[in-house]
Amino acid sequence: MSSKLLYLSYILDDTTPTYGNRNKFICEKKSSIANGDVANDSTINTTVHIGTHIDMPYHFFEDGQTIEDFSIDYFDFKNVLFFELEPQSLIIKDELIAFLENVEQKEQFDLLIIKTGICDKRDEDVFWKENYGFSPDLAKYIRDKFPSIRALGFDSISVSSFANRMLGREAHKDFLNPQKPILLIEDMDLREVNLDTKIKRIIVAPLRIAKCDGLPCTLIAEVN
Prior knowledge:
alpha/beta; 13 strands; Glucose Oxidase, domain 1; two-stranded antiparallel sheet
């Protein structure tokens, strides 16, 4: 069976939604050929927690890891576990555990991806106002049952539901614990993948910004 490549990340532009609708991505030209300049030259002004991005432990821990602390191999995932669910509430827990309990050979997987379907509403306010979050309890469960998982990716804008931010802070801390972090890949573009998609490999390519708490990233999946 032949394979193809898919982007699982969004392009950044001035319509990119952000958590709580607090920030905007701004790209401005310093010089413009249309205005008689020799070349086009642009600057950007943005939070690093925007669009498809990865949270580093330093996001919630002063002594937490940043991009310099991870090898290139860390971001090459060859055993991806993908699950599609319809959450029963804004905080995901029991329905995900029920699925994970039935997974065989749990120790082989290195990346867990959850599709909630909210990616189909990314251009609506509900995407950031009523986004799905994840229970802090899931971090310990995944570490115990799936010891090789290095990252959790999903189509919601954050691991923290905007409607329950206090719980969301605990979820960030539990997943990003520097002792054994599970990195968070937020706001993935999962519109073109489903349970019938055979994912062979995913490469995550974060912007390599020194000493930074979060990094916009490009995700490329090889699928059958």
